[in-house]
Amino acid sequence: MRNVSLAKHTISIALCTYNGEQFIGEQLSSYARQSRLPDCLVAVDDCSTDRTAQILRDFAANAPFRVDVFENQDNLGYIGSFERAISLCGADVIALSDQDDVWREDKLAVMEECFCRRPELSMVFSDAQIVDEAGAPLGHTRWQSVGFTEREKLRFAQGKSIDVLLRHITVLNGCAMAFHAGLKKHALPIPANWSHDAWIAMLAAVTGEVEPIDSPLLQYRQHSGNLAGARIMTLSERQAVARANCGQFLIDELARHTTLCARLETIPDIAVSVRRLIAGKRHHVSVRQSLPRARLGRILPVLGELMSMRYWRYSRGLMSAGLDLIG
Questions:
Q1: Residue 164 region, left (φ>0) first, then alpha (ψ -120 to 50), else beta?
Q2: Packing angle between helix 235-264 and helix 196-207, nearest 10 degrees?
Q3: What is the pLDDT of residue 38?
């Protein structure tokens, strides 16, 4: 039997809703079925025009735990709403939630066990089973759809989460994550050019340890209203998307890592090695984004990034270099 600390944590769920009446009832019911009930649900509704806010209030009246419902006066969007919900959570651990999924009954219990076993953790995140609109499994998981590899999982286990995330954002669903409340002072406010989940994961990796939970702790529902899909793409599809979006992606990526570098200036006690890694990522993206239009002019800078190993450390190796060479 593992030696697990008996120390418990208080846990808040941060839920954001918008016109979610079709599925919100199932999500709320899955909270009430948790083997480890949350201490509080903080629900922020972003000016819904359907019955979502009323469903939340009805649930609050009979829930087996505290429920605080907040209704935005103006539409903040999902990033602004999550920022508000997170700021209103007062527990030790904050678990993010979407409005249209269904949690496995031991989701909070499994996550709490991780924090008890490893007090140094800043964040945990799990896999998720992909289901259709009716809740029927589609035969794959979220980690499979984002290409989260066994090698990357090993890197997390070795304490190299920042190395993985600088090359490949594997945490693309806030609904599968929980983080220590101490992270709020570094992660808030959430910048507009980052998704809230990727930003929180990056700050967690910069300031502490991150642990992946290799089990699907929720059903991630696919429907017409999803902000992000979870289909597995073929290699040829991934290459086509990369070719089509590479230019704008690099512009956006440079802006994101410039923002990250600026935020790090406000956080003391970050290891010099971590600062150098992130500065290296920004330099690599800057080189790729500023390659000349003429293909011959691309050869030397691409070779420089290949020889420095930055294409392997921060991008997709030869695949990214090839894309840069052909323009």
A1: alpha
A2: 60
A3: 98
CA terminus-to-terminus distance, the chain: 55
CATH number of the domain bearing residue 190:
3.90.550.10
Tokens of 120: 């140094």
What pTM was estimated for this model as a whole?
A: 0.90
Q: Which domain holds residue 243?
A: 235-326
pLDDT digits (tens, 9 = 90+) for 252-267: 999 999 999 999 999 9
Residues 258 and 252: their CA atoms lie apart, in Å, by 10
Report the distance separating Cα 248 and Cα 289, nearest Å.
9
Furthest C-alpha separation in the chain: 68
- CA-CA-CA-CA torsion for 97, 103, 106, 112, nearest 10 degrees? -10
pLDDT in tens, 107-120: 999 999 999 999 99
User: Which structure tokens are listed for 47?
Assistant: 């000016």
CA distance 224 to 137: 16
Q: Which two tokens stand for residue 14?
A: 């941060």
pLDDT band at 180 (very low <50, low <70, confident <90, very high): very high
Take residue 43 and report the two structure tokens written for it. 């629900």
The answer to whether residue 1 sits within a structural domain is no
Whether residues 239 and 272 fall in one domain: yes
Give the DSSP per-residue string, 95-160. Answer: EEE-SS-EE-TTHHHHHHHHHHH-TTEEEEEEEEEEE-TTS-EEEEEHHHHHT--HHHHHHHHTT-
* Within-domain flag for 111: yes
- Is residue 158 over pLDDT 70? yes
